[in-house]
Design goal:
Blueprint: H1 3-18, H2 22-34, H3 37-60, H4 68-73, H5 76-97, H6 99-106, H7 110-144, H8 160-184, H9 187-207, H10 216-222, H11 226-234, H12 244-268
């Protein structure tokens, strides 16, 4: 083999090694998230709040027929904010430090950069939430045992399915935060928008329930907000605002809208 051929072959091998693949993008995004202390602080606070609030509900609830699984998933009304904020700062942190320029220089395909971050964030929140809600379930069973408030693991609808749905909802909330992070690029702005959609809007919409039939369209529209849809997916039944399939479609629509908005801004604006 001639020296020129060897040089050409070495160049191709080096190029293959440097080639950016989606798996390498996923690994890169995981390193970014895992090396931030704020990530683990957020997860730790989420875990403490979930287990603590669930235990308090189990101890204080004395209503007959109160399902133990409700105590496990009820803290999501508060921890959803942490999921959304974590998704927001995972994006805006790159803009504030200038790392986004390095990310896009290494991978000019901006859609792939967005997809890799979304996949890592969603998977991380899903797994972390599954662990946290499962721990909370065992704590609730232990604390609520004297009041016969024990989770029946033989019934998936009263145990595993609500936990899985709540974990999926946490991933959705994080992706909404990711979307606002890319669209607004400001940590304060993205957090404010995320909190507004997840927490403030449902409260504001509930005030119109006192306005009578003329304002009922607002409360009906509020049923399609992420938090209300998540509640309907987690604990379906007569009291749910949406049917289960509609609730999941609504959550998926919020994810799609967030990602499309993020992609539109990311591909048209300079870093």
């Amino acid at each position: 083999m001639t020296a020129a051929a060897q040089l050409t072959r070495s160049s191709h091998v080096a190029a293959d090694r440097r080639r950016v693949t989606f798996l390498r993008l996923l690994r890169s995004e995981w390193i970014k998230i895992a090396t931030l202390r704020s990530t683990w602080w957020s997860i730790a606070i989420t875990g403490v709040l979930t287990v603590g609030i669930a235990a308090l509900i189990a101890v204080s609830a004395d209503a007959p027929g109160f399902d133990a699984i409700r105590a496990v998933v009820s803290p999501i009304q508060f921890t959803m904010l942490l999921a959304g904020i974590l998704g927001s700062i995972a994006v805006t942190g790159e803009y504030s430090t200038g790392m986004i320029r390095s990310t896009l220089a290494a991978n000019p395909v901006r859609g792939a950069a967005l997809a890799s971050k979304a996949v890592v964030i969603a998977a991380f929140l899903l797994v972390a939430s599954l662990v946290i809600f499962t721990i909370a379930a065992f704590v609730v069973s232990a604390v609520g045992a004297p009041n016969d408030m024990v989770i029946d693991w033989s019934d998936p609808e009263a145990s595993a399915l609500p936990i899985l749905a709540a974990s999926l909802a946490m991933a959705v909330f994080a992706l909404i935060g990711v979307g606002f992070g890319y669209m607004l690029r400001s940590g304060a702005g993205a957090i404010a928008a995320t909190v507004g959609v997840l927490f403030v809007l449902p409260i504001v919409a509930s005030m119109f329930s006192f306005g009578g039939e003329s304002w009922k369209w607002i409360t009906d529209l509020a049923n399609y907000l992420p938090m209300v849809a998540a509640q309907s997916a987690i604990l379906p039944g007569e009291g749910a605002a949406l049917d289960t399939p509609v609730a999941y479609v609504t959550l998926a629509a919020w994810v799609v809208a967030s990602m499309v908005g993020a992609w539109a801004v990311l591909r048209t604006r300079d870093a």
